[in-house]
Amino acid sequence: MSSLMKFNMINSASPIMEQLLNFHDHTMMILLSITVTVTIMMATMTKNKLSNNMLTENQLMETIWTTMPAIILIFIAIPSIKTLYLMEEVIKPSITIKTIGHQWYWSYEYSDSKKMEFESYMKPQTELPSFRLIEVDNRMVIPFSTQIRMIVSSSDVIHSWTIPSMGVKMDAIPGRLNQISLMTKNPGVFFGQCSEICGMNHSFMPITMESINMKSFIKWMKT
User: Fold this and answer.
1) Dist. CA 131–CA 168, nearest whole Å
2) Which is deepest, 35, 73, 104, 134, by most CB within 10 Å?
3) What is the pLDDT of residues 48-99, one digit of tens each?
4) Which secondary-structure segment (H or E) carries 170?
5) Would you give the end-to-end CA distance of the chain in angstroms?
6) Strand blocks (E) in 124-205
7) DSSP H stretches of helix in 55-174
8) DSSP character at residue 70
9) 146 burial via Cβ count (<10 Å: 0-12, 13-18, 19+)
10) CB 170 within 8 A of CB 160
């Protein structure tokens, strides 16, 4: 099972990641069909002595091999545009969280009900139990099945706030506010890292997000 998992994409934890996985599978099936068809045609034409190797003009063939790629691109473009639209759309967020990238840690700010700020550093490897290089001392906590708006920025250089299992990646640019929408389907802990080379400690500013139920989230906010 572990060897098979290496060939698969990461499991989805959000509706957006599900759409990305579906688009990946859809596109790979089209590419595989094209590859198999072209391979069979080439093998058949090279072995068939009746094929006209000196063919220089055929209007029907030229029309087919011009029209078919256009049709294939349409079948790829339609789900791609749909997925891009869903990734950019922010639908009535219930909670807004602001994250700021620093060299080399993240800070988070909750300001809907009461203002709460904290910094999130990578947990030292001496502190056990912890996941190596991806666990932090203060996790970002959100309620699952709730629409969240993330405001992303930076205080120094360009960073990138990324959680692969959520299908989210947004650059943190100094002097600019970028926003993304996310929603987890289930409770759990999800990991990410800065995906922009931001300095010598770029590999040591992980992201850890914990998804819990709304009752536990309200209790966490109060305490």
Assistant:
1) 21
2) 104
3) 666 666 666 777 778 888 899 899 999 999 989 888 888 877 778 888 999 9
4) strand 168-172
5) 41
6) 140-143, 148-154, 159-163, 168-172, 178-182, 188-193
7) 59-88
8) H
9) middle
10) yes
Amino acid residing at 219? K
Query: What CA–CA distance (Å, rounded) separates 144 from 184?
Result: 5
Burial readout 80-118 (b: 16 or more C-beta within 10 A, e: otherwise):
eeebeeebeeeeebebebbbbbbbbbbbbebeeeeeeee
Quick one: residue 85, left, alpha or beta (phi over 0 = left, psi -120 to 50 = alpha)? alpha
Output Rg (C-alpha) for the chain, integer angstroms. 24
- pLDDT at position 2 is 47
Between CA 170 and CA 55 the distance in angstroms is 52
Burial of 59 from C-beta contacts in 10 A (0-12 / 13-18 / 19+): exposed
pLDDT at 136 > cutoff 70: yes
d(CA 123, CA 139): 11
From 186, 137, 195, 138, select the one nearest 166 (Cα to Cα): 186
Q: Which amino acid, 31?
A: L
Nearest C-alpha neighbor of 24 from the set 185, 167, 193, 180: 167
Which class does domain 95-222 fall in? mainly beta
Question: How many C-beta atoms surround the C-beta of residue 158 within 10 A?
Answer: 15
To the question of pTM greater than 0.85 for the whole model, the response is: no
H helices of the chain, where? 2-5, 15-47, 59-88, 214-222
User: Taking the domains of the chain in order of start, what are their residue ranges?
Assistant: 11-47+58-88, 95-222
